Amino acid sequence: MNTVLHKAATRGHANHGWLDTSHTFSFAHYYDPSRMNFGVLRVLNDDFVEGGRGFGTHPHDNMEIISIPLSGDLEHKDSMGNTTVIKQNDVQIMSAGTGVQHSEYNKNKDKKVNFLQIWIFPKVRNSEPRYDQKTFNPEDRINRLQQIVSPEKTDAGVWINQDAWFHLADLKSGFKTDYKIKQKGNGVYAFVIEGDVTLNDQKLNKRDGFGVWDVDTPSIQADSDTELLLIEVPMN
After folding, report:
1. Is pTM, for the whole model, over 0.85?
2. Residue 180 burial by Cβ neighbours in a 10 Å radius (0-12, 13-18, 19+)
């Protein structure tokens, strides 16, 4: 078994006034050669955007970009013709493929939006750009691992161009479960949204990240009421 621990306070941080952001992995002006990625997981940003502000139109290519709002509403526009708003309990994916341009703004002027921005390297490069978003029932993740991203084109999550699975969980204090790795050679990266949890004997707190690989069934125990994101990805 191999592990990597990223405590919340060790993340890269930047406050641009309109954007207060923390980077689990190297991004923009934050560079740490030991924190470039976890397998094909390249970016995990924890973004707080002021009311009415946001990211102007900019390009992406050959990246799977997942947005998970934790609070507030985020307005999205892209060159594929999509104009949408994503909010808590929504999950959005933009498969940039051969190239796409998009913008993201806080829909509200009177409160911040907080969302996780996650980038995954694609399995197949130069595919046709694609957009999807789905709303998930929060009741379905109480003491359960709710699948929100999947490589299968089913209703169980937005579809990703990679052998990757994402799960959200809302675990009550004392709850125990296991996560079964779905594909040989994959690892799982846990990000604690809220609360305290022990994953394979490693104690984690709010906004900590912990990756584990070369293991089949990592154990999970909620040490307090906990919101947890699990990201399973290929390690090579």
Report:
1. yes
2. exposed
